[in-house]
Amino acid sequence: MKEVKVLEIRQSVFADNDRQALLLRQELKEKGIFLLNLMSSPGAGKTTTLLRTIEMLKDRFRIGVMEADIDSDVDARAVSESGVKVIQLHTGGMCHLDAGMTRQGLEGLETGDVELAVLENVGNLVCPAEFDTGASKNAMILSVPEGHDKPLKYPLMFSVCDVVLINKTDVLLYFDFDMDLCREYIRMRNPKAKVIPICAKTGEGMEEWADWLAKETADWRKR
Amino acid sequence: MKEVKVLEIRQSVFADNDRQALLLRQELKEKGIFLLNLMSSPGAGKTTTLLRTIEMLKDRFRIGVMEADIDSDVDARAVSESGVKVIQLHTGGMCHLDAGMTRQGLEGLETGDVELAVLENVGNLVCPAEFDTGASKNAMILSVPEGHDKPLKYPLMFSVCDVVLINKTDVLLYFDFDMDLCREYIRMRNPKAKVIPICAKTGEGMEEWADWLAKETADWRKR
C-alpha cells in the first residue's frame, strides 16, 4: 500500500465550537466544497462504505478524504488505493473532532479543487455527536450486529444525523435484528432522518445512498 | 419486565481521579467486594455476556450489577430478570465513568453483602479507557463483526484491560476476522492481557471466562 500523509491534530483553541462550525460551513459553501461527516461505532463499516462510495462517485466529483483515528493509518492507506486525495488525521487520544480540528484537517488535505470532502470521524457513538464539525451534512452507520436498540441508548447521535445507513444487511439472518423496530426507534429520536439499509460488502442499497450524496453535493454547490 | 432503580449520575467533583480510584479500590478490598469494569463498543455483547456469566456464577457469589448508559434502562431490566441486584446509572450524556461516578453507583446499588460487583460501562472504546473507575480488574469485549484491526486503532483500551473477550465467534465464518492476527495485535498493545474467544449466545468459551472471573474474585476476597 502507498504511504499517506499523516497529520497530528492539535486541540482546538476556540471555546465556542458552534460559532467556529458555522464559519467553516460558510467558507466551504463559498468554495463549493460539500463536507460529509461520517460517524459510527468502531467496526460498523465506515471505511468499506466509503471505498464503495468513492468507486461510485469519483467520476462525478473530485473527492478528498480525511481519515480520523486515534492511532494507525490502515484506513487512509486503504483509501489511497482508490486514487482519491486522502490524509490521515491522528487525534492523539481525543475521542472526537470539532470544527477547529476539522479545519486543520482540511488545510492538511489541501482541498484545492475538491468538490466532495469526507471526514471519517473517530469510531464512537457518543462524543462525535456533541461537536459540530462544520460539515454540510452528518451521516452515521449502524451495523446489524450492533443491534436495533442503539437509537435508545445513544439518542444524541441519531438526533444529529441527516441520514442513517444500516450496514451489513447480508448477515441479517444471523442476528436478532428487527429492521422495522429499528426504523421506529430512529424515528422517535429524529423523524427527519433518512434511513437506508445497505451492505457495503455486496453493494446492496448503495445506489440509493450514492444518489442521496450526489444530490446533496450538487445542491450544496449550486450558487 | 421488572421496574429497576435508576440513578442519575452527577459529574465528579474530584480533579484527581487516579487518587479517587485508588481510595475506592482499597475500600472495596477491605469490604471484600471484587469490582469488574466491563467495557466494549456499542453492541459488542456486554449485556448478553453478563447475563450468561451471572447464570454461571450466581450460586457461588452474591452478585450486584451497575448498568451505565447515557439513556434508557433496557439492559438493567434484562439483568433484573436474572434475580441479581441491579441498578441503572444514567450518565446524562457523559461518555465514560470515573471513580467518583462509580462510587455514586455503588452507593445507589447498596452493595451490602455483594461479593462480585460488575460495572457495565458506556459502550465506547475511547473515553472509558482513560478513567480508572477503581475496579479490581478491567475486561473488554471485542466482537468479531468489528474486525481484528481494532487493537491498532484503539490502543489505550486494549492496554488497560486484564482480559479481552472476543465475542460472537458463532459468526466467524461470515466475517473476514483473523483470530491469530487479532491475538498478535492485542499482544503488541498489552503482552499480559488474557485473550478468551467466546460466544455469549451459544456458551462457547464461557467456562474459561467464568473460571477466570471466579478465581480473581476469590483471590481478591482473601485477606
If you had to describe this structure to a student in words, what would you say it looks like?
The structure is a homodimer of 223-residue chains. Chain A is an alpha/beta fold. The first copy, chain A, has one domain: P-loop containing nucleotide triphosphate hydrolases (Rossmann fold, 3-Layer(aba) Sandwich), CATH 3.40.50.300. Helix content of chain A is 36%, strand content 20%. Chain A has an eight-stranded parallel beta sheet, with helices on both faces. In chain A, helix 7 links the parallel strand 7 (163-167) and strand 8 (194-197). The longest helix of chain A is centred in the C-terminal third of the chain and has 16 residues, at 206-221. Chain A is globular. The mean pLDDT of chain A is 95. Chain A binds chain B through residues 41-44, 69-72, 74, 93, 95, 122-127, 130, 143, 145-147, 149-150, 152-156, 168, 170-171, 174-175, and chain B through 41-44, 69-72, 74, 93, 95, 122-127, 130, 143, 145-147, 149-150, 152-156, 168, 170-171, 174-175.
User: What low-confidence regions of chain A span 5 or more consecutive residues with pLDDT below 50?
Assistant: none
Residue fraction in strands of chain A: 15-25%
Task: Please state the oligomeric state of the protein chains shown.
Answer: homodimer
Based on CA inertia axes, which overall geometry of chain A fits?
A: globular
State the domain count of chain A.
1
Name the helicity range of chain A. 25-40%
**Number of E-type strands of chain A:** 8
Q: Characterize the main sheet of chain A.
A: 8 strands, parallel
Helix-strand category of chain A: alpha/beta
Q: Overall pLDDT of chain A, averaged?
A: 95
The H-level CATH homologous superfamily of chain A, spelled out, is P-loop containing nucleotide triphosphate hydrolases
Instruction: Tell me the span between the first and last alpha carbons of chain A.
Output: 39 Å
Which strands sit side by side, in order, in the main sheet of chain A?
Answer: 1-4-3-5-2-6-7-8
State the helix count of chain A.
8
